[in-house]
Amino acid sequence: MGHLRQEVEPGEAGLDRKALDRLDGHFAGLVDEGRLPGCLVALARHGRVAHLTTYGLRDREAGLPVEDDTLWRIYSMTKPVTTVAALMLLDEGCLRLDDPVADFVPSFADMRVYVDGSGPGTRTRPARQPVLLRHLLTHTAGLTFGFYHAHPVDALYRDAGLTPSVPPGADLAETVDVYAGLPLQFEPGTGWNYSVATNVVGRVVEVVSGVGLDTFLAERIFRPLGMTDTGFQVTDEQSGRLAQLYGEDADGGITPVPGLPLHGRPRFLSGSGGLVATAYDYHRFMEMLRRRGELDGVRLLAPGTVDLMVSNHLPGNADRRTFGAPVHQEPGNAGLGFGLGVSVVVDPGITRSPSSEGAFGWSGVATTTFWVDPRRDLTVQFLSQVRPAGSNPVFPELKRLVHEAVLD
């Protein structure tokens, strides 16, 4: 078990203590108002943690506090980890970005694309090009989520039992085959739609490596980086440190809600959102990316591969608002492109929150987020455990407050 510790005073790292006090006060207020159960926020500069705050409770009903070793469901912050797994196989010559996914998952051959209609009246046509690995990693494959209500294909996902992205009782291989049996929203490579694609990436990792996704991540990423608490399940020893998951209720408060089953190896290994982790563990992962693939003498990726991962891959350096499917054409996506498994800032001047060009990261649905800012040599993570009913107001405020705290 690792413990995240503050390693340097904020002023030594170019951070304004008064601004950090405002940051802490803002989120303490959200906890005190009952909008968050508790939270952890950590900022590191030049590889050293310069600000670490825990506040509130990891389990309100049991009265258990947030601690530095609390375990959190990180949901979609799993995606960059699965992406790194695929890129490790790319570095080893086992994959190429332009490999057709059907080479590894045969059900992805002969994909069809939505034309018009809905339900049983849906009309499709053959895709003009195959779904490639790069399409999965950039969310440009034309896949979607069943919980969207923006396109007729979203409804087809729900009809197929994919409201939670996995059919009841299915494993990863079976689930990916269900995805392949549904039409794509658009021709691969012609739009951006955040989707189930990273689950397919996880399946490709399994097929190429010959081991389960959990085994690959544990042996090739977690163990080498010292991420001893990260995985798809919690042990009896760990279970007391697991934060309770909450959801927003109709009155603006929060109430306990069920999460993914974590006791015992899950049948479905979600490369999109199945991991739990501590702040220490995810700090190790962020540091590996900040250092372009290496940490404490362990190299997972070539420096150029990390550079490729954190570069915008949308055509013409477009952002997600202009290149995205209609559901993503919202102000919050302005100035944000997409790399391989991570968001990338391409135009700080039009982003919703203060940002640096080239900063990259991603968030989880239960109010967890991280980013790495290479220009400022800064890493940030924020961990809480609430599934919001709508768009999450926490993240823009976090970015604004962190921006105010950086002096150089």
Overview of this structure, please?
- By secondary structure, this protein is α+β, with helices and mostly antiparallel strands.
- The chain is 29% helix and 17% strand.
- The protein has helices at 17-32, 78-91, 133-138, 152-159, 172-180, 197-209, 213-225, 236-239, 279-290, 303-309, 320-323, 394-405; strands at 38-45, 48-59, 64-65, 72-73, 112-116, 123-126, 246-248, 254-256, 276-277, 294-295, 298-299, 336-338, 343-345, 360-364, 368-373, 378-383, 386-387.
- The strands form five sheets. It has an eight-stranded antiparallel β-sheet, sandwiched between helices. A three-stranded mixed β-sheet has the order 8-7-17, with no helix packed on it. Strands 4-9 form a two-stranded antiparallel sheet.
- The two termini are 34 Å apart.
- The model has no long low-confidence stretch (mean pLDDT 96).
